[in-house]
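Re: weekly structure request thread

Next one in the queue (225 aa):
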Amino acid sequence: MVDSASAAASSYPTVPLRPMTVPAHEAAARSRSFHDVMARRRTVRDYSTRPIPDEVLEWAVRTASTAPSGAHVQPWRFVVVTDPERKRRLREAAEAEEREFYAHRASEEWLAALAPIGTDWHKPFLEDAPAVIVVFEVHKGPGSPRPYYTKESVGIAVGLLLATLHQAGLATLTHTPSPMRFLNEVCERPAEERAAYVIPVGYPADGARVPDLHRKPLDEVLVRL
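Done, posted below.
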C-alpha cells in the first residue's frame, strides 16, 4: 500500500540524486580539515579598504542559496551594498538605533554580557568594509509566495554565506540593529521584505585585533543518547 504523501510526491518531477561519495576512512579527516579552517573564523570590526572581487561575493550568495528552506520557497534576498553614500546612510541609521539600544532598550544583564566584547553604538565598520550584505526575509507579497519556517531557512542560508566568505579569506561581522525597517528605504526593498542581518564583508585591516574569547568544549555542546 502506498501512503498519500508518497503518492503525492510521485506526481512531481524528480531527478537522480548526485550524492557526495566520501570513503569512510576519509570522512573524519575531511571533517577535521573543515573544522580547522572554520575554527579560525572570528567576528571582525576593523577592515581594510582593499576591494573584494565581485565574483567572490556572487559565489558566496550562490552557495548561501543552496540552503534548505521550508517548502523550498527560498525566502531570502541578499542585497550587496558597496556605494559609499548608501553605506553612510546605512551607518547613520543603524547608529541611531544602537544609541537607543545601549542607552534605553538593553537590560543591565544584556549590557554585562556584551562588556567582554567591547561593543557600543559606534559602527564604523558599516562604512569601512568594502561591502555590506543586507539579508532580507522575503514574506508573502505581490510577487512572492507565503514562506514557511522563514527565520530558520534564512538563518541556515546565512550560516553557509559566512562559511563561504571565510573560506575565501574574507572577514565578516553579523550585525542585527533593532528595529530594522530603515533598511527597506536604504536598500530600496518592498514592504514584504524584512531585514534580518547586516553583514560587513572585507579583508581585515593590518594589525586588526579581536577579543580573547573561547568556544565551549565539545562535552558542553554535544549530547549523545
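Residues 84-105 form the longest helix (22 residues). The mean pLDDT is 94.
Next request, please.
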